[in-house]
Specification:
alpha+beta, Immunoglobulin-like, eight-stranded mixed beta sheet, 26 helices, about 25% strand, globular, hydrolase, tripeptidyl-peptidase activity, Peptidase_S8_Ser-AS
Length: about 1250
């Protein structure tokens, strides 16, 4: 026993050592469990010695504390369970297990009144059963907030009602506000028949490609003088046209003000609430994304009379790189230490292996991490088990401790299953769910009862006091010390915890921080001692204990007078002497193989009933090494019952890279379900876990291949699922064997630098003979993108599946110093193609230019400024036909000479083999990859030993693979490319005249034409240049382009006439006969007057310059015909509108038709179905009332990915659908317009 009087404690950031250098008293209890002469006790079962250094004199003991004050005896555990109606109903929402029923019987008014719980989850449905009012008729849900921004609607645009009280919504719909709101020939018949068939084909194709992106709704917000009000038009949700109108919608405001919610429609039964921000410029529509959050809230719900929160429940988590680290942990520390909030979270569902607790629940000191417990009542009632277990157990999948830095991981356990309310859109009132996600709110509800009582009796609410009460009154389910890694301190007991709190109300609110480090080192700082395989010698540790007060604690009244006398105890032998710090030595050399758990804890000398004030967890894993060649471990006839877990800790041999395991199950009558897990822990890395869930329907053998890392202890866990075989009285007998293999490689990551040189690889086998069959394939392309204000631009030359990667931020949520990170990928039309967070995913996007916008939060602006230059990689999946298989050679020049191809070999133990992997040839590189891009893939070396030899020869299976990459080098530049050698034959005067002419044309193209004065000056220059260079086609083409790109003014008819005149000038300037001879012009098959001589090929060989000139002239001529046709159609439409006709009608066949004549001329020169000219074909088909064919050509144009989507094409598609009479498709396309062409950027 050590009496430790504490002196002058300070606030969190200024805490000294706990142990006073002069007031340390060392004592030894009479049981002689403590030795202080440095001599070890013999015996393998109790071979652990924990001793302090240096030794110190011993004093008479004062036995004032017994283990019974910490753990409950077996006699206090639940008795056998009998199923009846009352116990069945009670099992659906477990309360008896944690003593909540006993607590409420003693304190019926302490039912959660006065307690506010925050549910951090997937959303809560305000319409769910049991979440409307409390037992005294007050509202349960105080507020509902969306922290993701997914429901944010930009409502900054201001509109006014018309004289009839209508407004135009963002969707284009006319919305009525409520009064209470503020204010032929045969050939033609053939074409008609073809057009009808095209329409039918279109409808069939539309049915096959139908993609419902959800309804489009209009949101209106206004201020009624008191609050911001929101109305939502839900007509698109309802079947009837009279349903869901804006005028019938009851306006909402921020949920916390009136606690009203809406339902989108009776069809979906999905409820929502609204919140208005930024003076009405932003509306947040909040709804749940899964039943998870509502189910959790239904378990933990309590009365909410005020805005301040008392408890936070978070039923989410994941593995972490560093425990108790990151911005999220910093914020939780703040709400706990400063604001006295109690943060409760799930420990995780990754069990049954050890060290599987997730962040933040199982890895953060400030969070109460909760494991999942199932009682006999729950098994029989909620789970409908045929025969419940005799005693309660932890669910098989519940995560276990310790953390990587030695902390216990699980604080307490609570019932991990319940039948709880779920959202109305699930079309059921309640649902059974199980997981630590359910255990956490169960504990949260129990804590709410404690806080309700504390507030009623005036006891200060402190998370330190509540946590200590939960831990020191929990009911232990097992007498085995190592079971604490599974259940924490045990099953929480509300009634006992409240009694503890009542007895502690006059004691200071304080917790103790345990800081552990290897002796002689200041880092790393640990929270426990975790020896995982390092058991060959004794190790010395420095332990510092620091008291922690809440931040607002008074220096004068609380910190200065604080003093406590603490006894140190251990569950095993202890010698302790600390002049300033506590030094202990862990000697595990005499321990047996397997898992050992012990604790050093401190007891208040004056109040031993308080139990441990702090604990130092000590977890020791002593592995067993496999033997043989290859190394092998086997276990036979291991008996399993429901919930039984077998752990084997194996010292993985150095040089092992994979293991092959077999599991044989026998001796059972019904199907058996098993969890098979392996875990290896590495420094500064997430635990590497392999898992498999297998079901044996009959006695059989199953095989597995497990990647491993040599030299690192591995836990192999086999567990029979807790409910598997629960109705059978037969045990399952399991034989399992694991064999280790390995091929050691000279470098795990192979980088080909882009040169022609091969990369040398050396491999060896240290364990046994292995078949060496190298294989490497490049399957992805990765390009670099630079940022500006966290905006990244990237371009895809063809559609592909891409994934953004930011190495600094990806794959870390809780173990990062940044609060959040979110990105969106949008195109030039602001359409969102993808959004994501720290775990980016592949998304398929078409060809085009894209913008990735990244959002990062941090309280320090200077750090955010540094993030502006973050590197972003765009990873692109290559099509299977683009995959590149690399070749291996035994010679460095083998890929040039073609000699020395390396296929396979046999590695003997200790022997080495070297070979070369060669880079891909330039011809195989994907077209989409530019210089500097990186091709990624995998390389493997070995093959599995299991399986038939024939299968291995035909399809060799690689047990483990590594990364290989190839940097694409720059292409060789052709220095002569682009040079015009004919210019050297011209005299200086000719060259000067050409340069002057081209300069004038460039000047003409660059002049502004925005105002009337600028347009007039431009036209004057055009006339001057036409007079100076008459019939010069490039000049006339530039003038036509200028008219097309100009504003045109208000007189559109004059502008179209000018375009026709300019197009005719271009057409007249071209020698069409000469051009036709050059391109072997083909006539229009519909024009019988075209002479056959145009089909004759004029020439096959021409000079390159002449060819380019002719191609340019042809393109200018075709563009003139094309633009002239569009202008003629527009003029015809203007005339029809002025005449009052509904549709522009073509001229009668007896009259000349300029449009048709122009169209036939265009067809002579180009393919009018091409994407560049097909718009004129669409106009022609629409003009001739062949709407189906026009729609088909337009859809082909839209699907062409050569250019980004254009709004005018989709508008034209809607017009054509309306003219055909397909109103349902018009509505469908109008809804999609808001997805393809958002009116404003995505709101965050």
């Amino acid at each position: 026993m050590i009496d430790v009087p504490l002196y002058k404690a300070e606030r969190l950031s200024r805490l000294p050592s706990l142990l006073h250098p002069t007031d340390l008293i060392l004592a030894s209890p009479p049981s002689s469990l403590f030795s202080y002469d440095g001599r070890r006790r013999a015996g393998r079962g109790s071979g652990l010695i924990i001793r302090a250094m240096p030794s110190s004199p011993c004093f008479a003991p004062v036995p004032i504390f017994s283990e019974e004050t910490v753990h409950t005896n077996k006699s206090d555990r639940p008795a056998s369970f009998h199923l009846n109606e009352s116990t069945f109903l009670a099992s659906l929402m477990p309360k008896k297990e944690i003593g909540a029923d006993r607590f409420l019987e003693s304190h019926p008014s302490y039912d959660g009144r006065g307690v506010v719980i925050a549910i951090f989850d997937s959303g809560v449905d305000p319409a769910a059963a049991g979440l409307q009012v409390t037992s005294d008729g007050k509202p349960k849900l105080l507020d509902i907030l969306d922290c993701t921004g997914s429901g944010d609607v930009d409502t900054s645009k201001v509109v006014k009602t018309d004289v009839d009280g209508y407004i135009t919504g963002a969707s284009g719909c006319h919305l009525k506000l409520h009064l209470k709101y503020p204010k032929t020939e045969d050939s033609k018949l053939k074409r008609v028949r073809e057009d009808l068939q095209i329409k039918l084909d279109f409808l069939r194709k539309q049915d096959e490609s139908y993609d419902d992106r959800g309804p489009i709704i209009d949101v209106v917000v206004w201020n009624d003088g008191d609050f911001w009000r929101v109305a939502i038009d839900t007509q698109s949700f309802e079947d009837g046209p009279e349903n869901g109108k804006l005028a019938d919608f009851v306006p909402l405001t921020n949920y916390r003000i009136e606690r009203k919610y809406g339902i989108f429609s009776k069809l979906d039964a999905c409820s929502f609430v609204t919140n208005v921000y930024d003076e009405g410029n932003l509306v947040s529509i909040v709804t749940d994304c899964s039943p998870h959050g509502t189910h959790v809230a239904g378990i933990a719900s309590a009365f909410h009379p005020e805005n301040k929160c008392d408890i936070i429940n978070m039923s989410y988590g994941e593995p972490t790189l560093l425990p108790d680290y990151g911005r999220f942990v910093d914020l939780v520390n703040e709400v706990v230490d400063k604001h006295h909030l109690i943060f409760i979270s799930s420990a995780g569902n990754n069990g049954p292996a050890l060290s599987t607790v997730g962040a933040p629940g199982g890895t953060s000191s400030c969070v109460v991490g909760v494991g999942a417990y199932v009682s006999p009542a729950m098994a029989s009632g909620a789970h409908c088990a045929v025969e419940p277990p005799l005693e309660g157990i932890e669910y098989t999948w519940s995560s276990r401790g310790p953390t990587a830095d030695g902390d216990l991981g699980v604080c307490v356990s609570a019932p991990g299953g319940a039948v709880s309310p779920v959202p109305t859109w699930t079309l059921q009132r309640r649902m059974l769910m199980n997981g630590t996600s359910m255990a956490s709110p169960s504990a949260c509800g129990g804590v709410a009862l404690l806080i309700s009582g504390m507030k009623a009796e005036g006891i200060p609410v402190s998370p330190y006091t509540v946590r200590k009460a939960l831990e020191n009154t929990a009911m232990a389910i097992s007498d085995l010390p190592a079971e604490k890694l599974t259940m924490g301190q045990g099953l929480m007991q509300v009634d006992r915890a409240y009694g503890y709190i009542q007895q502690s109300k006059n004691l200071p609110s304080i917790c103790y921080r345990v800081l552990i480090s290897p002796a002689g080192k200041t880092s790393p700082t640990l929270r426990g001692i975790y020896l995982r395989g390092a058991c060959q010698q004794a190790t010395e540790w420095t332990i510092q204990i620091e008291p922690r007060f809440h931040e607002e604690a008074s220096n004068l009244e609380e910190l200065a007078p604080f003093e406590e006398c603490i006894q140190l105890r251990s569950t095993e032998k202890l010698i302790a002497n600390a002049p300033e710090y506590l030094f202990i030595v862990i000697d595990p050399t005499n321990l047996s193989d397997g898992l050992h758990y012990h604790e050093v804890y401190g007891i208040d000398c004056k109040a031993p009933w308080r139990g441990p004030l702090f604990r130092v967890p000590i977890t020791i894993i002593k592995p067993v090494g496999p033997l043989g060649q290859p190394p092998l471990l086997s276990y036979s006839n291991v008996s399993f019952s429901p919930g039984h877990i077998e752990r084997r800790f194996i010292a993985v041999p150095a040089g092992a890279t994979w293991a092959e395991a077999t599991v044989r199950a026998s001796g059972f009558d019904t199907a058996r379900r098993f969890f098979i897990d392996t875990v290896q822990i590495f420094p500064l890395k997430r635990p590497i876990k392999w898992e498999s869930v297998v079901t044996f329907s009959s006695p059989s053998l199953k095989s597995f291949v497990i990647p491993v890392k040599g030299g690192i202890t591995m836990e192999l866990t086999i567990a029979q699922f807790w409910s598997s075989g629960i109705g059978s009285h037969e045990s399952t007998h399991v034989d399992f064997e694991i064999t280790f293999h390995g091929i050691c490689i000279s470098r795990e990551t192979v980088v080909l630098d882009g040169s022609e040189a091969s990369a040398r690889l050396e491999v060896k086998s240290l364990l046994a003979s292995e078949q060496l069959i190298p294989s490497a394939t490049l399957t992805k392309a990765m390009s670099l993108s630079h940022s500006y204000k966290i905006l990244y631009k990237f371009k895809l030359d063809e559609g592909a599946e891409v994934k953004p990667r930011i190495p600094l931020l990806n794959n870390r949520i809780y173990d990062t110093k940044f609060e959040s990170q979110f990105y969106t990928i949008s195109d030039a039309n602001k359409r969102i193609y993808a959004s994501g967070d720290v775990y980016p995913k592949y998304v398929k996007v078409p060809k085009g230019e894209y913008t990735l916008q990244l959002y990062i939060r941090h309280e320090n602006v200077q750090i955010l400024e540094k993030m502006r230059q973050l590197v972003l990689f765009i990873e692109r999946k290559l099509d299977r036909k683009e995959h590149i298989t690399l070749n291996f050679f035994s010679q460095p020049d083998g890929h040039f000479t073609g000699n020395g191809s390396f296929k396979s070999s046999v590695l003997v133990p200790g022997g080495a083999e070297a070979f070369y992997v060669c880079p891909p040839s330039r011809e195989k590189l994907p077209k989409c990859s530019s210089a500097g891009s990186v091709l990624l893939g995998s390389v493997s070396y070995g093959t599995m030993a299991t399986g038939s030899k024939k299968d291995q020869q035909k399809h060799p299976q690689s047990p483990v693979s590594y990364q290989i990459s190839y940097i694409i080098p720059p292409s060789k530049v052709d220095e002569d490319r682009g040079k015009d050698k004919s210019d050297s034959n011209k005299c200086v005067k000719e060259r000067l005249e050409e340069e002057v002419r081209e300069t004038k044309i460039r000047l003409l193209s660059g002049l502004r034409r925005g105002t009337e004065e600028e347009m007039l000056a431009w036209k004057e220059l055009c006339a001057s240049l036409k007079a100076e260079y008459p019939k010069y086609t490039p000049l006339l083409a530039k003038i036509l382009d200028g008219l097309l790109s100009g504003s045109g003014g208000e007189d559109k008819i004059s502008n179209k006439n000018e375009i026709v005149v300019a197009a005719n000038e271009v057409i007249d300037s071209v020698d069409k006969e000469e051009l036709a001879k050059f391109f072997s012009l083909k006539p229009d098959p519909e024009d019988e007057e075209v002479e056959l001589e145009f089909l004759r090929v004029i020439t096959a060989l021409l000079l390159q310059k002449l060819k380019k000139k002719m191609e340019l002239t042809r393109d200018q001529l075709a563009e003139a015909f094309y633009q002239k046709g569009l202008a003629l159609a527009d003029l015809e439409s203007f005339e029809a509108n002025q005449a009052g006709a509904k549709e522009p009608c073509p001229l009668l066949s007896s009259e000349s038709d300029p449009f048709e004549e122009n169209y036939k001329e265009l067809k002579k020169w180009v393919d009018v179905k091409s994407s560049k000219y097909c718009m004129l074909m669409i106009v022609r088909e629409r003009r001739n009332q062949r709407l189906g064919n026009a729609l088909k050509v337009l859809c082909d144009l839209i699907q062409d990915e050569s250019e980004p989507p254009k709004r005018k094409l989709y508008d034209l598609k809607i017009q054509l659908l309306g003219e055909i009479g397909w109103s349902h498709l018009v509505s469908y396309e109008k809804q999609w317009l808001h997805v393809r062409f958002p009116s404003s950027p995505f709101v965050f």
